[in-house]
Amino acid sequence: MTPSVGRSVPRPDADPKVRGTAVYGVDFEIAGTMFASLVRSPVAAGRVVGLDTTAAAAMPGVRAVITPDQAPAHRSGLGLSDQPLFASPYISYEGEPLAGVVANTLENARQAARAVLVDIEEVPAIADVGAALADGARFIHTDWASFTPVPGLPDWRRYGNVCGELISDPGGVDEAFELADLVIEDRFEAGRQYQAYLEPKSASAVYESGRYTIHVSHQYPFNVRDRTARALGVRPSDIRVVGHHIGGGFGARLDVSLEPYAGLFARLIGAPVKLVNDRVEDMLSCNSRESAVIKVRSGVTRDGRIVAREYLCDMDSGAYATDTVFLISIPMFVAGSVYQVGPTRVVARAVYTNTAPSGAFRGVSGTYLYFALERHTDNLARAIGMDRRDFRMRNLMTDGQSMLNGQVLSDAGILETAFDAVEEMAPWASLGVGPNRGVGIAATVWLTNPAPGQVTLKLNEDGTLGVITAATENGSGAVAMGVRQIAADELGVDPSDVILTMPDTDGQGFDAGSQGSRTTHIVGRAVREAGADLRRQIVEAGAQLLEESTEDIEITDGMVRVKGRPHRRLSLADLAKGAMFRRGPLAATGSYATPIPKYDPESATGMLFPTFPTPTYHVHVAEVEVDPHTGQVTVLRYLVAQEVGRAINPQGILGQIQGGVAQGIGHALYETLEVGADGRYRQRSLEAYRMPIAPDVPRVEAALLEHPDEAGPYGAKGTAEPPIVPVAAAIANAIADATGGSINRVPITPEDVLEALDGAQDQIRGEEE
Amino acid sequence: MKLSFNVNQRDVTVDVDGAEPLLHVLRERLKLTGTKQGCDEGECGACTVLVDGRPVDSCILPAGVVAGRQIRTVESLAGPDGQLAAIQQSFVDRFAIQCGFCTPGFLMTLTALLEENPRPEETEIRGALSGNLCRCTGYSTIVDAALAATGDDQ
Amino acid sequence: MEFRSAESVDEALAWLTELGDEAQVLAGGTDVMLQHMRREITPSVFLHIGRLDTLREITANDGMSIGPLISHRTLATDPRIARSMPALTEAAETVGSWQTQEVGTVGGNLCNASPAADTVPPLLVAGAVVELSSTGHRRNMPLDEFLVGRRSTARRSTELLTGISADAVSPGTGETYLKVGRRSAMEVAIVGLAVRLTVDPDDTVTSARVAVCSVAPHPYRATAVELILEGSHMEPDVIAEAGRALTASASPIDDARASADYRGRVMPHLLERAIGACLHRARAGRKGL
């Protein structure tokens, strides 16, 4: 049997997906279900002074109107317990749930939800971090000091509208700036990006025998369990979460959204309940990628060395802390992981505003943090008159150097290999040549999420291999390709004989969800652990059935054989059948979590996300053309060199790269949720929120660089998340090159492009005078 | 109103509000849930079905207008023996599916395109797909799958 | 809500007489359904006219007659339109997606009266006249009088748009529609511009028509610009002056798509490009004789 690892094996879920038979969360219904709709706040800030449900309760098909007094009043959250189920009485963002309606159809529930009369005393919204941090700014939560971290987390420094703060100030930074020949300072801004999965969020729940069963399409069912338990004030084991096909997640389905409401309503009315977001409420309430303001200052020497740096970042957490208190650690990794930078000070804050809570989106924070870093890197090179690529190569991290947290990057030399790989695809000097054309390059280091997972492998009596895991197939192929192919090779069976389960937190061991490209690496490794155990059991059973000693038994090509006597053999099916009533079913469980790398806990305060385990290395090159009159940008070519450890399914990884680059192009050029002065989003539909369409996205040219990781299954590292990370940086640098001007924010609008062209003209005129 | 039309070679009569979106009739009343609801405003194309062979966004098509018409949904593509249509098989073989939620819509638009023009160029394919959003793939494998289904590969 | 599907124009007109404002005429329904689903309109009856095949005809003689139920897709692909009104072909190609082009109609586009209606500028430069019918009465009206404001037309609630006539391009005439958006397609125009120029053999402009959308409450003919171009040889200073006049004629707003300043800034460049394209086509058309 040819090993399947390393081959591009088509995915098994493709068949139901092309037939239209795959059941997604929104398609799933519990028999007899009722439907619910949330009454959401129309304003960003204010106080509920009246809630009149009379009219709504009398509407057709209405079963119940759920008011805040029927819900637990306590706050809960992902890191910080600051979020109530219903705003009562204080409203902190537009779209915040105020009440709920349960009816016999979704339409009736929605109509009745609109009929709930809410009397609100509106107050001026705090719409951005600048306003939230201004002297004398109103506190978004007057009782912020009473909020507590979730169980297990120590508290951290918080004050007023700042719900998290990371400070890394190792000493010697100001002195190092003194040694610089030039100090360059830049300021950048990044807009919110909506994950815009095509399947709107939904949740179905039933409450029976004191337990809640929740059906959902979710990246992290065990977090649904834990977060719903905290929100409802019950034990995690009181909740069972069953996963269905996921219509895209990209980080937006890592925290809970509708699930606690589904559970609560199901218990209150004594019948199953399903909630489905319409697209508008999905956009309004989604934990989109946070907007941010970044200031970077670096000292350089004339010969092209970075000797000191300061990297400051304020992230808009929205109305609640959610992920952002973790994400404030990322600037520390971005500021000092790709280039050798000298002493560096990093200060990053998570700031409350009257906007929807922001959160995880593929390449969490890294997309815009590297945009800022790499735009700044271009500016440093330009300031000392050095080629941008040469300047980067000169300062690249090498094997064995440490990041700002003290963690050693033993294999950072791969960065140089990646620069060489893109050069081989298209020489730097050959790109961006011609009027209105430009080229940009960006390099990044990204992590593989280390969080734990577990797999049980069972050998079925027909010789097929069951893979029992709560790992989620979010579309990336990590389960459908990665886990499946690794499992197939454990016993040498064909991948078509591997049977994957859908997630069920009652039936499977813990899994930390599809986040940070962890599934192939972590769950794949757990498969290998389980596989070793299962093979041992198979050998023992084979020895028993074939009446040989275990040392003489081998497993090859899906058969159990006696070494040297190929005719003495059993198929795995016969072995499993034979073993069943002699020694019991054959199954084994494997678990894995990446050991936390060594780091210096003293390197920063407020560091809730302290390491960057299993790093991977990336170089992207973008070539663009700008229209000098309209400012429109065309991406002509896009090159990627991505280090993957080992490619389990090369086509699968190339699909992640092409898709990640497309999302990155959206982030760089089109997509933003702008917040108006009233705290409300200006983009409120997919018409206004522009995602790249087929004619906008070039065919990405990619090279996969294999440097097998010791711990990863067959050397695999995380591959699916990082392709989005360098894109905004590479494109912004290309546009800056094409225009000769400054590009200081994403998304880059045609107006920004024209402004950059104007700026370049002014500069030329200035130099001529 | 009583509404009669033909869906996937089957005559059906349903009692609906004529202003109800066709998508709702297909999914909720006829249980044809392969057609997906993504945006309810004709932007994402996940709800694309063919009406008399032409692709339309069923989420913003009033059901009343399809009286007497022929509707085709993703469920009609595979043969009666279950064999995948060429464009479906091409999607499977070319890795054109990730989360798959947009897939039925893409398949229907491409079915209409290939019936109208059996050998479209890449730019025509991309243009024809402008009304179908895919958030996962970045489109290239979908375009490849369409090119492969033109028959040039066979 | 009641849904009525008319089987004849007379039946539709009778219902409109009966219902007036209570009826919402529905052709393809792309705009109407969105407004209905967003609860922006609350008619008591949807009056479906999509089965009135007599309103779905194109006749191309000296003048063009375009049935109001012609879909954007037909406008974009019909060779008679491409030959006689190429700017309309170009505009229709840019309306939304294939899916919405199949359903959306030119008459619907006119009656919906969006400030960003792509088909309107090409119809304006073609001197389009609309025919409005009610029971026992019929009147014609130039398109620029029909459009009275943002989402507002001169159509009376008992009237149905039953015809659109327009001038075909003649030899020596070239026209084009240019549109600025963010993406390559699926865009509501940030600016849409149609220009139709007739030039004599020495390249003197004998007739100029210029119309824009998305820069005012409704699309309009920029007559001041036309006067500047007519009689000229499209010298660079004339084009520059025309560009300034175009920007001056507009009253754009800031919205989530683009700022007013941006719209004002790109208009002269679009005009310059459009003039170049028109001239090229006018010359090519003459050679074709």
Structure description:
- The complex is a heterotrimer of chains A (769), B (154) and C (289).
- Helix content of chain A is 28%, strand content 25%.
- By secondary structure, chain A is α+β, with helices and mostly antiparallel strands.
- Chain A folds into three domains: 14-20 and 450-592, Aldehyde oxidase/xanthine dehydrogenase, molybdopterin binding domain (Aldehyde Oxidoreductase, domain 4), CATH 3.30.365; 32-124, Aldehyde oxidase/xanthine dehydrogenase, a/b hammerhead (Aldehyde Oxidoreductase, domain 3, Alpha-Beta Complex); 292-449 and 599-768, Aldehyde Oxidoreductase, domain 4 (2-Layer Sandwich), CATH 3.30.365.10.
- In chain A, helix 17 links the parallel strand 29 and strand 30.
- The longest helix of chain A is centred in the C-terminal third of the chain and has 29 residues, at 518-546.
- Chain A is globular.
- With 154 residues, chain B is of the alpha+beta class.
- Chain B has five helices and five strands.
- Chain B has helices at 22-29, 86-93, 103-116, 122-128, 140-152, and strands at 2-7, 10-15, 48-51, 54-57, 70-72.
- In chain B, strands 2-1-5-3-4 form a five-stranded mixed β-sheet, sandwiched between helices.
- Chain B starts with a strand and ends with a helix.
- The model of chain B has no long low-confidence stretch (mean pLDDT 96).
- Chain C is 38% helix and 25% strand.
- In chain C, helix 10 packs antiparallel against helix 11 and helix 11 (236-249) packs across helix 12 (260-287).
- The longest helix of chain C is centred in the C-terminal third of the chain and has 28 residues, at 260-287.
- Chain C starts with a strand and ends with a helix.
- The chains are: A alpha+beta (769), B alpha+beta (154), C alpha+beta (289).
- Chains in contact: A-B, A-C, B-C.
- The B-C interface holds B 1, 17-19, 21, 40-43, 45, 48, 51, 54-57, 60-62, 64-65, 67, 109, 112, 127-128, 130-132 and C 1-3, 5, 26, 28-30, 33-34, 36-37, 46, 48, 50, 73, 96-100, 102-103, 184-186.
Features:
heterotrimer, A: 769 residues, alpha+beta, Aldehyde Oxidoreductase, domain 4, Aldehyde Oxidoreductase, domain 3, 3 domains, 19 helices, 31 strands, B: 154 residues, Ubiquitin-like (UB roll), DNA polymerase, domain 1, 2 domains, five-stranded mixed β-sheet, 5 strands
